[in-house]
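Box 3.1 A note on notation
Throughout this textbook, protein chains are presented in two layers. The first layer is the amino acid sequence; the second is a token string describing backbone geometry. Keep the layers aligned when reading.
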Amino acid sequence: MNSFPMGQTWTIGIDLSDRFTSFCVLDDQGEVQEEGKVRTTPEAFSRRFAGTEPCRMVMEVGTHSPWASKLLAGQGHEVLVANPWKVKLIAASITKTDRSDAETLARLGRSDPRLLSPVVHRSTQAHADLEVINARKALVASRSLLINHVRGAVKPFGTRLPGCDAHSFHKKVPEAIPLELSQQSTLCSRRLRRSPSKSLPPMLASKPSAATAIPRPLSSDRCQVSGHDLPRLRPDPWRSPPIQSHPPGRSLSRLGS
């Protein structure tokens, strides 16, 4: 049903989710008249509520609440966006389901909108500007994380990178990278330039057979795996030696004798 009878005051609680949105319709007596679900897309919202008589709609702050509140307000509805952190009846509910949350929102909006601590969303342009700022913040954090990782990765090899800012890091650091790490990074960059299937290590790209699964030594620092010549992995001098198990056929009590 896309419209409600005239002459009554309707309150609709909307619980937004990522895929489907639950809604609950209350009449002026507080009785549930309809419950249902609709896809969380602008097209589905427009089809479902386009012919509805202007009424009060209540929803929570969330990922989809900015566009949903603007769309419904553009259709002539009174839209209240509740702050769930200040509404303990919603945040601390024991039976927290999409259906019950939609009904709770509708009843709170019908009784007293001030209980919802309603918020007002930013404009579309202001929200777009904020997302640009958040994207730059994420990039700066990622850059700092990678730089700190490189500085920490070279220390087990007895190397310390020179001090510099992030803008000149890629110019001053490559010459100070240990040879072992430099060779590995070159090998990885070559694989990344290939197709995705060829960029995987041989043991991950295809299931090796019993004959090719055993590395065959070529020299003191090279080995061959599945027909590919790769650098031999050296043991970590800082790692503790593995614990040897007791010989088969002997009990633990006899190991000390």
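The chain has a mean pLDDT of 78. The longest strand covers residues 32-39.
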